Amino acid sequence: MSDGATGLIETEAGAEPRNGERRRGIDRVIMLLEALLRHRAPMRVGDIAKMIGAPRSTTYEIVNSLLEAEMLENVGTEGYVYFGRAMHLFGWAYSHHNAHYRRIIETLDKMAAETGETVQLCGLRGNKYIVLDCRDSSGPFRISSDVGVEVPIPWTASGRLLLGHMSEEELKDFIPPGDYKLPDGRVIAPAEFFSDVALARRQGFSETVALADRFTWCMAAPIRDSYGAINKTLCFVLPVDTPEARRSELLALLCERARGLSLAGS
């Protein structure tokens, strides 16, 4: 979740509105949608109200409005709600009317078909890493990823590229201290991570081995915007025992396709 969204969810129900009741109502709609996205499953309205720190009556009013707009829909008969079909239409409109994004999706499809490996489009949301889109491996060792799930940046190859514009001091301020601890309890030394970021900046790609998952080898290449900034990456997620020759072949393909998707030269 983005820093701004986190701040909204943590706002107390009794806090003074910053820009009047109208702004506060809009904020709560955003908070509610962010809460559902973060939970990644249907929720009861009362539970949403607790999560966003809003009165139940206000939350019910917002939910009813979103149900009427088909932005939410009822799930089952026990009061659960989740995203509705209007949200799908918003996503469809974005993906089909953004020419660059269409090119990226076409590239994901093509790379997955050509290689049989898991291919991802990755980026940042606030101070977390997320998978924006993914095509899973068709091989016997299937590696899949949850699109939209927020992951600590130091766990990822992409994060080392996406933060390449930051100084060491900026990295210290940006990464929460707890995010250096891996799922299995190992801890990445901040200095080691800063060094990895600098290396990724110099070589134009990043690879990590057995960090978030001990069985995976991850590689990422930058997709640059029209200003040359890196706000998306193209990635392969491979079995950790993938032969070196195969990894080299895939890394070359990854860098080539990422350059082809970039809107500015490296």
From TrEMBL:
The keyword DNA-binding applies. It holds the Pfam family HTH_IclR. Keywords: DNA-binding, Transcription, Transcription regulation. InterPro entries: GAF-like_dom_sf (IPR029016), HTH_MetabolicPath_Reg (IPR050707), Tscrpt_reg_IclR_C (IPR014757), Tscrpt_reg_IclR_N (IPR005471), WH-like_DNA-bd_sf (IPR036388), WH_DNA-bd_sf (IPR036390). Residues 23-85 form the HTH iclR-type domain. GO terms for molecular function: DNA binding; DNA-binding transcription factor activity. It comes from the Bacteria. GO terms for biological process: negative regulation of DNA-templated transcription. Residues 86-266 form the IclR-ED domain. The keyword DNA-binding applies. Residues 1-20 are annotated as: Disordered. This is Transcriptional regulator, IclR family.
